[in-house]
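Blackboard transcription, Thursday session:
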Amino acid sequence: MNDNEFLRACDALIGAPHVLRGADQAHDMAPYLSDWRKRYTGRALAVLRPADAQQTAAIVKLCAEHDIAMVPQGGNTGLAGGATPDVSGRQVVISLRRLDRIRQVDAANHTLTAEAGCLLANVQQAAQNAGRLFPLSLAAEGSCTLGGNLSTNAGGTAVLRYGNARELCLGLEVVMPDGALWDGLRGLRKDNTGYDLRDLFIGAEGTLGLITAATVKLFPRPAARMTAMAAVRTPAAALALLNLAQEVAGPLLTGFELISDFCLQLVSHHFPAQRYPFAQPHAQAVLLELSDNESETHARQLFERLMETAFARGIVEDAVVAQNLQQSQALWHLRESIPLAQAEAGLNIKHDIAVPVSRVADFIDATDPIVQRIAPGARMVTFGHLGDGNLHYNVMAPEGVDAHTFLRQFQAPVTRAVFDSVHAHHGTISAEHGLGQLKRDEAAHYKSPVEVALMRRLKIAFDPNGVMNPGKVLPD
Amino acid sequence: MNDNEFLRACDALIGAPHVLRGADQAHDMAPYLSDWRKRYTGRALAVLRPADAQQTAAIVKLCAEHDIAMVPQGGNTGLAGGATPDVSGRQVVISLRRLDRIRQVDAANHTLTAEAGCLLANVQQAAQNAGRLFPLSLAAEGSCTLGGNLSTNAGGTAVLRYGNARELCLGLEVVMPDGALWDGLRGLRKDNTGYDLRDLFIGAEGTLGLITAATVKLFPRPAARMTAMAAVRTPAAALALLNLAQEVAGPLLTGFELISDFCLQLVSHHFPAQRYPFAQPHAQAVLLELSDNESETHARQLFERLMETAFARGIVEDAVVAQNLQQSQALWHLRESIPLAQAEAGLNIKHDIAVPVSRVADFIDATDPIVQRIAPGARMVTFGHLGDGNLHYNVMAPEGVDAHTFLRQFQAPVTRAVFDSVHAHHGTISAEHGLGQLKRDEAAHYKSPVEVALMRRLKIAFDPNGVMNPGKVLPD
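(Written on the board underneath:)
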């Protein structure tokens, strides 16, 4: 079967309008061939847009039979190039965006079943319509898809209370690399009947199979939320505040973000409408949020008790408490503007790392001087989900130095030193963004040979011909 | 290498006193060769008791090289025969009980690392000594081990709030079937660097590798707990109370057990010291518990609000609220006495099933009449973790009928009908006890061929020679 015959067979399976190919359709294909940060651009024999799980299974079977490598793609908002084809032009992109139905909401079971191509925001909305909460929340929620969230085990801002995508998923429907459809869509809280297939596909970035639908956990909607920004002296003080907040608020503590003063200054500088939140500068800020199932009054009392204790113990220097939803959103907007302010300030060396929560301050104290020795004057843009031990530990050119020149000279040695320090602190070089193409080789570098060998055995067991998203997660 | 040479090689690796074998040591070996309910009894070439992970790896490597099948064993409290050798006398039991050290407690990271042979109660105690809670709790906690809990993905009475063993585990150390040691002992809340090996070993009942240590999550210790027994008319009313409790108490709701009136009567009958909790009989009872991080006062207020609303809506007919720890323990003791009272009453047909929480009442309403048609007059002993959709749906001989005769006649058809109904309600035939030998074939019967094939591929990928706990989980 030559390329034309293959493409006509695709037409027959999913309809010609959903098989994008050739120079005529280059414009329509383009958005599927680059990641959104434009770090990776590939080519493709075709972009295939099946309508449902059955069409997806049929098209995967066809590709497998003709040894055509497939690149599954959701909202294409990934940060590691996991959904971009290679430059050979021999791969196909399978876009899941047309699989966008909410199949079932079972409010009494606190579950929802949705197709992989549903936008995260639509899943959140479907839960809300049923009087429930789907707590996964991240900046790209208006354009990322549930399938992509699960394939990359997405994190976001409420992991501390609700867990990451893995912990929110009860069941999956997956098309295997040979086109077999596995129906694992279970809405069960307990099921001990054999190997945990579900968690193998979550975070596998489409290299073991192609997620077409998922059953996820819902939660009661909280009655109130309290947001505050607290000023502290050091990351160690932020950790002390975290521990106190966990003691006082237990499972109600929903978010706990660390933001260095330089991050806030960067936001104020590039977005002057966003005011620096404190009367005077403080070295570190913490954005913390409780969500309460009881009442606004109870949430406020709990919060006041927490902050009083923190002041009394000298942990906190100042605090701004949101008095309403608008003020709460303004505080979160500050936090979410950091990556945008960074982008305004020019390219920088990004790291999405995690260490044990107890070691975050040690990690920063040990690593900052190492970075300074390699790249004197580099500016540290340190922020992230402290409650999860997850830092976006980014490094910016010194004042007045050209960003491109800085990256060319320092990206490799700085990243090596940061990752070595992460490794020494028993951490991970990819906390929530996955590996894709970007960190594939680095991950293999830091993993033990035993672990890499086990991963390879899994890949071979499920995809012996290497047709499902080859070149991602594992080195070829 | 003949048997004697093999055993001497074992002696050299772990010391002769820890290699039990032969007629001389039959008495010492016996406890390792039967499960505690004495449903399965096997034989063994030897019982090997390594002292640490390195010795375990060495002994596994030796067995693998000589194609000797291994049966890992923890506290030997399993309910499905997963830790009992076959009758050939060619297998060895590897007891992990000497791997009993708490390696590390990191209170600020809310983690603890312990070896597989640690008793669950000792892990709980180590957490408590550090001012933290390890919430996994089940009847066998004084004799079961952490490794066994993870290998069977144990559930227990606090799954509703804290999750099952899987959700409590962050990292593992595992000896692979060829003797390679995988160090996956990570104390990280986020780590997206490839395939989720950890969850593959959890619930695999020692068929993919042998867990030697684990890093588990700890939690702040609650300040107070509230326990009550509420009388309701039907399982549907119990579900309405569950929904209300989840709305009012959110994540503070820790336990929610359904107990039919017949179960309480059975306990009162066989253990007269345990009084029936209500002034008059009610068809169903619910044991519910909140654990509160704030205060006794707050817990009581929340609880009173919940019960007032439940009475006002006509969901609850009566309620007994524990006024102190002793009364709380007495209510739990009632619940925990059900299996003991059943044992006093004679053998019965046991099922550990789960369905979506929303379908529990439908399941009972649909299945009770089916059982009655097959075995008229059979008495239903229905209780379990309603919050997880998990019922111990047990069937007892009619009044005056010999239990053995009843089982001989009805066990097979009743279990088939119950499992068929579970399957029709999108449930599972093993919610928290695993498969072992007991439900291995039944699970394969209800799973799709695609799923069984995927499980088999995993087994072959990790244990190509089938030396690690063969005959468990998957049919040979």
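Lecturer's comment: The mean pLDDT of chain A is 96.
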